[in-house]
């Protein structure tokens, strides 16, 4: 099935949604860091002088690009869905929604830019978030990156593949233990999309870990997991897998091999360099290239 390009989808969203929100585009451009306060004042002056809309004045001055403007408009469109999101008791840890002006949220947006440029635009559709030890913030980064990607219209699926200690449901206010990955792997449902929570945010779907199971490694090691992952990789711009730490089991290696690529997460003053080195070597042996690493300082 032919899929429209990211650019085509972004263009259609802007055409359809140009006039449907009241929130000023100026604030969105400021939040995303595309305009400084000084530039904003200069745009306002140019706007008044030329009788232009704010966004057109910013473009005319060369302070923003059309891509910047598309992303700001997408964020405004996405904000219309936040009332429903809040009803589901979304965690405050989802900082790209709860505290979008924070340093942490800005760090996530920087990571998003790098992932789009270096990973998604290269045609890579899978990415496993892996860590050597517990407590690195792996789930935090996976959930926030997924939400951040959805804000710019990247069709994203977030899979909680940590069936030992799942957390993704908590970020999005989803029912713990509801049908999810383990349900598909244990043959309770026929196809993986049956246990996907579609449009948890605009452009973001989530598959939770599912009901507890006693032998997650056995389920992950079967062909059903790899085949299901391949099916989903064809349907999304990016599929993000959250994984358990590698120090206690081999789940992350199996998941990384199915995803095709891994992003390594470590925490300052918490992760040992030797453990990280070991994980990188193990992933290489599993034919899962590490595309980069994140040193979490929060």
TrEMBL record:
Transmembrane segments: none annotated. Signal peptide: none annotated. Keywords: ATP-binding, Nucleotide-binding. The keyword ATP-binding applies. The keyword Nuclease does not apply. It comes from the Bacteria. This is Polysaccharide biosynthesis tyrosine autokinase.
């Amino acid at each position: 099935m032919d899929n429209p390009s990211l650019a085509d989808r972004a263009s259609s969203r802007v055409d359809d949604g140009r006039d449907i929100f009241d929130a000023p585009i100026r604030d969105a451009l400021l939040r995303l860091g595309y305009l400084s306060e000084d530039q904003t004042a200069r745009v306002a002056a140019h706007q008044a002088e030329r009788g232009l809309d704010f966004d057109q004045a910013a473009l005319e001055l060369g302070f923003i690009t059309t891509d910047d403007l598309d992303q700001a408009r997408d964020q405004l469109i996405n904000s219309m869905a936040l009332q429903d999101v809040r009803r589901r008791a979304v965690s405050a840890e989802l900082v790209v929604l709860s505290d979008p002006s924070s340093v942490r949220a800005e760090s996530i947006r920087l990571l998003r830019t790098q992932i789009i440029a270096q990973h998604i635009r290269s045609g890579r559709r899978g990415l496993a978030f892996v860590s050597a030890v517990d407590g690195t913030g792996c789930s935090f980064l996976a959930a926030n990156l997924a939400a951040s990607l959805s804000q710019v219209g990247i069709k994203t699926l977030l899979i909680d593949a940590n069936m030992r200690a799942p957390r993704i449901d908590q970020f999005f206010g989803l029912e713990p233990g509801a049908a999810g990955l383990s349900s598909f792997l244990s043959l309770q449902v026929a196809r993986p999309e049956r246990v996907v929570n579609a449009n948890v945010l605009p452009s973001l779907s989530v598959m939770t870990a599912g009901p507890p199971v006693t032998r997650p490694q056995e389920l992950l090691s079967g062909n059903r997991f790899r085949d299901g992952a391949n099916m989903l990789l064809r349907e999304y711009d990016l599929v993000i897998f959250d994984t358990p730490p590698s120090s206690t089991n081999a789940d992350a290696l199996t998941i990384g091999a199915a995803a095709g690529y891994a992003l390594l997460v470590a925490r300052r003053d918490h992760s040992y360099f030797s453990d990280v080195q070991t994980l990188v070597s193990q992933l290489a042996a599993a034919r899962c290239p590490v595309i980069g690493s994140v040193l979490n300082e929060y």
